[in-house]
Amino acid sequence: MKYVVVTGGVVSGLGKGVTASSIGVVLKACGLRVTSIKIDPYLNTDAGTISPFEHGEVFVLDDGGEVDLDLGNYERFLDVTLTRDNNITTGKIYQSVIDRERRGDYLGKTVQVIPHITDAIKDWITSVAVIPVDGRVGPADVCVIELGGTVGDIESMPFIEALRQLSYSVGQENFCLIHVSLVPVLGVVGEQKTKPTQHSVRELRALGLTPHLLACRSAQPLLDQTKEKLSQFCHVPAGNILSIHDVPNIWHVPLLLRYQDAHNAILKQLNLLSIAGPPDLQEWTKRAETFDNLTETVKVAMVGKYTGLSDSYLSVLKALLHACISCSLKPVIQWVAASDLEDEKAKEAPQVHAAAWETLKDSACILVPGGFGNRGTEGMILAAKFARENQVPYLGICLGMQISVIEFARSVLGLEKANSAEFDPDTPDPVVIFMPEGSRTHMGNTMRLGSRKTFFCDHNCITSKLYNNPDHVDERHRHRYEVNPDSVEALEAAGLKFMGKDETGRRMEILELPNHPFYVGVQFHPEFKSRPGRPSPLFTGFVLAASGRLKAYLS
Q1: How far apart are CA 468 and CA 554, in angstroms?
Q2: What secondary structure, in 3-state letters, does 399-431 show?
Q3: Is 512 labeled as catalytic in the residue annotation?
Q4: Which among 134, 233, 329, 332 is most buried, taking Cβ atoms within 10 Å?
Q5: What are the Cα distances from residue 354, in Å, to 332, 341, 348, 381?
């Protein structure tokens, strides 16, 4: 197994995930099989209980793993299906070691960070690296490992030490370290400053790891003199110092790496030049250029509660992008904080309230994504009502589906106090209820998670046609509340149709509103399986409806 390790320095948020994914893309384009591992040094065992404001969205895998959003980047870029074990956290490592200690596996020894924690990290990496993720038999050729955080963080020290030991045990020709750093330009001086990167590499070298390549993030391409200076002070050949400067879209990043011969530097270090071919990135080039040249736009109102951080809805944004490009449209995301639509906001901040409604009405379609808690839900209900009454294309995902059921029950059935038991436990009309198998005492890993089957009830519905009329679809889930089965009959009698259910027929998965251009709610999360070359059918239909092309597409 060959290992490519990506670390980061100076500041977080430099784009290590995109860089690691792009490295995987280029190596895969050279004919190699690639897998990925993300290391998160936090103590949580997984990302499931972390707020989107902390680390962005929680990405869900087929096996139900709740993981860091960078694994979503890996799946989209590399077109692979990862497992929960491809995300290593400090919590998982310590839990596994403590479990072994309680069983007596260490035979009376004092359990310490070195060697027990570091050995557990190495064992985890080497065992997960050989699990095939591309649908083929046998292990991959290269495992790309991204270490989260920045070099020098206390919590990442055991992982740095484990990677140092791994580099020694597997041998230099099986280990390539790429350090992502920042090269800022100070406004007054206007010079590309190398000192932050110098300090970061010095810190890395002090911990026993020497980078083979530097991936330098900057606004503009690195100057030759900047590369020479970095080479001199960081002991990295100038040819191995990569300029990862700002580009129009992230699909240019693999192309940047190819243009700078990053693949040859990596292949040379890993002794793979003899078996790898030149990278074939025609599809990536076409996609990047297509996006750059799009002129026709479509305005999408994103009505959510985490709108202050776009990474909270990263997979939704990517799924919209994939769908728009397949339809030759450029997405214009119009962020609407759900709470700004509520009547209370009109009293507190009338200008903010008016601006939110103006944005909503100016959009060609409305999307209400997933979320938890009752903040902003009344605003979402108002958005769903506006879409339903004004024939505006609407897509509700997870919470967004439940919102549309609540709105319909209130407005059409006349149940003014209809609500979700999540938002109002004492509601007389709970049209959304807690799952029978859910846990009320533990939050972590107790939801309905991962890939589940949804069976279609009517193949004439829009959703079934978009999926090409299969008997069922497999999509990923993440919820602990669902539509009340006892409310379904009344809702359907009033015109809201449930077109997809689970294998029991009791759990509602898809709803549609007939005689509406596109009014769809789904309990699952279609965004998690969208790929650049294979956009989610639901997002494609949503975008087509917004541009008035859905009817022609379906016929």
Answers
A1: 10
A2: HHHHHHHHHHHHHCCCCCCCEECCCCCCCCCEE
A3: no
A4: 329
A5: 20, 8, 12, 17
Question: Which of 124, 185, 123, 179 lies closest to 147, judged by CA?
Answer: 179
pTM (two decimals): 0.93
Set 55, 252, 516, 525: catalytic member: 525
Q: Which long-range contacts (CB under 8 A, 24 or more apart) does 221-224 make?
A: 221/245, 222/183, 222/192, 223/192
Query: Using CA atoms, how far apart are residues 85 and 493, in angstroms rounded to an integer?
Result: 46
According to DSSP, the residues that pair with 218 across neighbouring strands are 245
Ranking 15-29, 129-143, 444-458, 464-478 by mean pLDDT, the lowest is: 444-458
461 is catalytic: no
Q: Which of 398, 422, 461, 477 does the annotation list as catalytic?
A: 398
User: Is 199 noted as a catalytic residue in this protein?
Assistant: no
Cα–Cα dist 546/542, whole Å: 6
Radius of gyration for the alpha carbons in the chain, expressed in angstroms and rounded: 25
Q: What are the DSSP E strand ranges found in 343-502?
A: 365-368, 394-397, 419-420, 430-434, 448-456, 472-479, 481-483, 497-501
Q: By C-alpha distance, which of 536, 63, 145, 473 is closest to 323?
A: 536
The pLDDT tens digits of the residues spanning 446-496 come to 788 999 999 999 888 999 999 998 899 999 999 999 999 999 999 999 999
